[in-house]
Structure formats: structure tokens, C-alpha cells
């Protein structure tokens, strides 16, 4: 137990360290630096399936937009501009998804609830500190334990299975960018689908009278004739099915991501996580409101770098984390 100068508040009776675990307080800073250089990944079956489904749906949307709508178009610049725009949005969305999924959300080091470590904190007499009985760590203010990641996460907002990770202090920026780019690409896909339906109906309506006259001439000549579908390289039933499914997917994605984007921006501007809002926790910290909160999440003054999911990215080598008891490994 800690010294009498401060108190350790715990939810249940739990040893500071298990018999087979050890913790060196002198190496805590270096271990946190190593974790910052690694890429985080949660080995959760449901989360991995949801993440793969997200990628497949984005790839499907890109396939329909590119090969069903844009490449068969006779307007060259229409195809080029919309193709470049949609593919850029898709790349930015998937990159933001990867950064959210593979970034440590702010995990507290395991097993640091030792007497030596607490003495190094230089706590004031009577000051209360909290220990998580599940991962045996000293919980910082506003940290919560995630049962899926099996770690305490600083400023944990929620655990999102679609990114297979918690949204916390260090990756909230990338989650906001992911929801924003998915919402923009969904709107773009809906607009392209609407234009495609209008152009196909208008083109086929105009061509029907020409086709009728051609059929009459061919019937008089008793020659074989074929009807050509000029709206897409695919057959009409396949084209209609692909476009309808893309419309439904885009509508669902836009609704979900637009709501999440608005919720995240509201939480950042009010400096309140979703867990804190649901629990109606009274703030014991100095709130960073509006632009101060935005700068703390996105870093620096407002600029185009806020929109860039590649900021701070560094390649690493895949290596298994040596610590036991957690579902994550590092890259």
C-alpha cells in the first residue's frame, strides 16, 4: 500500500502488481516514447470484421463511380474532374481510417501502480489517486478503462468497432477526419448517381424515337438489328442494381458519419467526451472551449494541415509487443 501521506482509492481489493509482473518506474518515460513510435492494433474479431467491411464498401463505391459512371461517359473533363475528386476523397478517408485504427488512442502504461512510482509523483498529503484494478495502473484524470482494448485510455470518447479502436486523446483528430471524408465522398457519390440516372433516362428517352424509326426501316428491309445500351458498359439490370445499392450505401454512410462528425466537433468545442456527457460528470478540469479545444486536438493554429491525415506518419517494422495480457500488438 502507499505511504500515509496520500491515499490510493481502488474499486476493489487488488494487488499493486501480480506475482509474475514487474514494472520499472525509471523506464516509464522511455516505454511511453516507444509506444508513441509504434503502430497500435487491437486484435478484436468484431472490430477487424467491421474494419474490413468499411474498406470493402469504400472500394465498391469507387468501383461503381469509376467503371460504371465515369469511364463510359462521353464527357472527358466530367470524367477526369469527378474521378480525381472522388478518388482523392476515398484515399483521404481510408488513410484517416488507418491512422485512427493504428494509432495509440492514449493508453496508460500497465502495471505502474507501484509504491516507487507513486512516490515519484510527489503527491500532496491527503491527495487521492485512483488505480484501475483491471490493468493495474494509476488512472490519470479523465481516463476510462476499455473492456475491449483492455487498457485505460486518456480522454476516452468511445470505442468504435468500425475503426477497431478506441477514440481517445491521441487519435480523435484522425477519427474526425475519417467521418468528414466519408460524409463528403458519400455526398459526391449521391450527386453522381442522380446525374447518372437523369442522363440515362434522358438519353434513352431521346434515343427511343430514333430507335423506333430505325426498327421500322430494318423491319422493312428484313435485316437483323440490335439495341445498344449507351449509358454504361454493363447491362441495364446490372447497372441499375449497382447504382441503387450505391445510393443506399452512400445515404447510410452520410447519415452515420455526418452525425458522428457533428457530435465530435461539439465534444471538442465543449471539451467533454461522450462518456463524460453520458455520465453527466461535473468537470474538475479547466475546460478548453471552442478554438482552444480544436487547437488542442488538431494541433497548432487553423491551417490546411488540419485536413491532412498523413501529418506525423512514420513507417515502422512489425513487431509483437512483449507484454502479456493485452489484445494489442505494435507495428
UniProtKB/TrEMBL annotation:
The DHHC domain is required for palmitoyltransferase activity. PANTHER family: PALMITOYLTRANSFERASE ZDHHC16. This is Palmitoyltransferase. Coiled coil: none annotated. Keywords: Acyltransferase, Membrane, Transferase, Transmembrane, Transmembrane helix. Belongs to the DHHC palmitoyltransferase family. Residues 131-280 form the Palmitoyltransferase DHHC domain. It is an enzyme of class 2 (transferase). It comes from the Eukaryota. The chain crosses the membrane at residues 45-70, 76-94, 174-197, 240-261. The keyword Transmembrane applies. GO terms for molecular function: protein-cysteine S-palmitoyltransferase activity. GO terms for cellular component: membrane. It is found in: Membrane. It holds the Pfam family DHHC. It is a multi-pass membrane protein. The keyword Signal does not apply.
